[in-house]
C-alpha cells in the first residue's frame, strides 16, 4: 500500500463499465503552482489508504475488504476452547517426546502476571520502546511526509516512478538490516534514533531549500534510512528476548510492539499538515 500510494492518489478515477482498472488512466491534474508536483492529498498516514483511498474505487472493491475481515475472524480463526482441547490432546499423547532430555513437565499455558509484575516489566522496556518509537516516527515521517516532495525534474524517471523507487530502496534497506543480526548487534537503540532524526532533518532541509543536485543522493540516503529502521526493530526485539525472564518474555515482546505503531501513527498525523503547508508555500 505504501509503494502504491502515489499511484492510487494520482489515478483516482477509472472507467465505470470496465472490469479492470486501466494501468495508465488519465491522471487528475496536480497542483501546478507547487514546485513539488503535489497530489491533493498526502500519501500519509499508512493506515489511511485501505479505507480512505479505497473510496475512489467501485463499491465492489471496498465491500470485500470490509466483508472479509469479519469472515476471517469468525469463520477461519479457531476459538480458544478448541485450541485448548487440541493442546491437551497433543500433550496427552504417548507419542510425543520432549525436545530436551529431562523435560517432562507440561508448559504452564495459564501463567498470568500481576499488575505489579506487568508494570515493572513495562518500565524496564521503556529504554527500548521510546527509542524504537522515535526511530519509526522519524522514518515514517520521511516516508509519508517527504517522499512525494522529493521530486526531481532533471531525471528520466517520472514522479510516480521516483516515489516507487524510494519505497523499494527503503524496503531493501530494511530487509538487509533485519537479516544482519548474526553479523552485528546494537545494544543502544537510542543511537539509531539520533541517526534517524539526523536523516529527517537533512531531508526536510533538502525539501525546503532544494539543494540536492541528484536523485541518486536521495537513493543512498533512503537506503541508509531503511537500514537504520530495520536495525532498530530487529535489535530491539533481540535485546528484549535475551534480557527478559522466561515468565515475562511473552508479555514483554507483545508490549514492545506498541512502539512502532505509536511512532507510525504520530508521524502520519503530523505528515498530513506538513504536506499541505509545503505544497501551499511553494
From TrEMBL:
Quick one: where is this thing mainly located?
Answer: membrane
Domain of life the protein comes from: Eukaryota
Which GO cellular component term is one of those annotated? endomembrane system
Q: How does the record classify its membrane topology? A: Multi-pass membrane protein
Question: Where found?
Answer: Endomembrane system; Lysosome membrane
Keyword annotations for this protein?
A: Lysosome, Membrane, Transmembrane, Transmembrane helix, Transport
Keyword check for Transport: yes
GO BP term (any one): lysosomal lumen acidification
Q: Which residues cross the membrane?
A: 125-143, 188-209, 215-234
- Which family is this sequence assigned to? Belongs to the battenin family.
Q: What is this protein called?
A: Battenin
Taxonomic lineage from the root: Eukaryota, Metazoa, Chordata, Craniata, Vertebrata
